[in-house]
Amino acid sequence: MTKQKKGFRTIDLTLGALFVGLMAIGANIVVWLPFLKVTFAGATVEITLQTFFATLAGLMLGKRLGAFSMIVYALVGIIGVPVFAGMQAGVAQLVTPTGGFILSFIFVAWVSGWILEKRNSSTFATYVTASFGGLFCNYMIGTTYMYFALNLWIGGSISYTTAWAMMLPFLIKDIGLTFLVATLARVLVKRVQFSIKPFTA
Amino acid sequence: MSNSVIIGQYVPGHSPIHRLDPRMKIAIIFIFVIVIFLANNWVSYSILTAFALLSTISTRIAPSFILKGLKPVWFLIIFTFILHLVVTKEGDVLISVLNFDIYSGAIWKGLEISLRFFLLILMTSLLTLTTTPISITDAIESLFHPLNKIRFPVHELALMMSISLRFIPTLMQETDKISKAQASRGVDFRTGPIKERIKAVVPLLVPLFVSAFKRAEELAMAMEARGYNGGEGRTKFRELKLKKADLFVLIFFILVLIGFWISRS
Questions:
Q1: Which among A61, B8, B32, B108 could bridge A81 via Cys, Cβ 3.0 to 4.6 Å?
Q2: Is B130 an interface residue toward A (CB < 8 Å)?
Q3: What is the per-residue pLDDT across B44-65, written as a single tens digit (0 to 9) for each?
Q4: pLDDT tens digits, one per residue of B145-162
Q5: Residues of chain A with C-beta less than 8 angstroms from the C-beta of B189
């Protein structure tokens, strides 16, 4: 997409809103695909596609609009629409230890969009780098937030390492997912860019 | 399900709290949340608790319903309390269970932090229980308006929120339809390794993307055909206006705050 420093176009607004909807579905994908509930290392992990769609938002909409639509996602959830994982909503979700992940999606979209714009190529390697950049942000922010949440307002005392150890099973799952993101995003960006191009011009 | 999505947690009603200006509600709750962290003795906590309970009663929503809505955080509140019981070692030993001492300071600290949590979540959920997502969106646009000065696109933010409120149920229905359609065509990855199961997402996502992008494009076209031209000079059908009742509530809240400030030690 061409760089635009000015305001958003109408199509940008609807596409941004679209990704908010996709995030809502990605967060609750187990509702439609119950087989995505996997038992891993003794714990049942519900796969969500939030990181997937956040990365995709960055890759397809660019860093600015991508991050903007993730801000909207967080806000829509906060005002009470059940778009977070497990059909949850409300400020309460941000207060829980995993609330940082919701905020991290803003940076996930920004970073993956930024990497793609910087590299300015559409090789598989670029997409993998961008997706992993997003994943890195996701876990850095999410886990750090969890660490602070548990220590500051819940008042426990766990070490930073323990916080990371708690997230490890999820991280392994997401590393696998990231390759899928990269593959799928590359195909989608090409096809969809093509379809909205006449509009852009 | 899609109907419940669009109204969010809103419970229709005509209580005084329902009729308050959404901007006033957001402002009061925002200040309240900050103030919770400034409370430091039992009098100040009681004042805040009384205010929160008064607001809760004024919504005329069944308390059992509100408490049920807090379900996901009950665990957090109780967990916090127990954690403090175990960790904090201040004050006198009250009870000794199996060589394990529970201190009086621990109970106070635990109660304090749990109460903070409870008040914070209760008040914020009152907002979403008594206000529709659409009016909160309007309020956000109005409250964030000054951010336009630093060139943050406030109007676009609010509009994107409204559009996504419209999109979310539609996309969910669409997902429902597609997943059923694919199942009837024999897509079944219930068994097999995780990698195969994740790949099963693709036959769901591709049709979803096709229809979703078409929708976004059509909507943008329809908006422009009707003359949508950005936020500049756009008028509103629903105008937010402060009423007398809003001012009364504001004055009452300020009095509560003054009382709170005096009671702090």
A1: B8
A2: no
A3: 999 999 999 999 999 999 888 8
A4: 899 889 889 999 999 999
A5: 35
CA–CA separation, B22 and A195 (whole Å): 40
- Is the distance from CB of B91 to CB of B106 less than 8 angstroms? yes
A30 CB burial (10 A radius; 0-12, 13-18, 19+): middle
Nearest to A21 among B4, B136, B167 (CB): B167
What is the sign of the dihedral through the CA atoms of B62, B66, B68 and B74?
negative
B156 — contact with chain A (CB < 8 Å)? yes
DSSP characters over B197-241 = HHHTTHHHHHHHHHHHHHHHHHHHHHHHHTT---STT---SS---
Q: Does A11 contact chain B (CB < 8 Å)?
A: yes
Say yes or no: B171 contacts chain A, CB-CB below 8 A: yes
3-state helix, strand, coil in chain B (%, to 5): 70, 5, 25
pTM: 0.87
Q: Give strand ranges (E) for A16-164.
A: 37-40, 43-46
- The partner residue sitting opposite A25, judged by closest CB among B6, B165, B172, is B172
Q: How far apart are CA B260 and CA B265, in angstroms?
A: 10
The encoded tokens of residue B216 equal 């976004």
Largest CA distance in chain A: 56
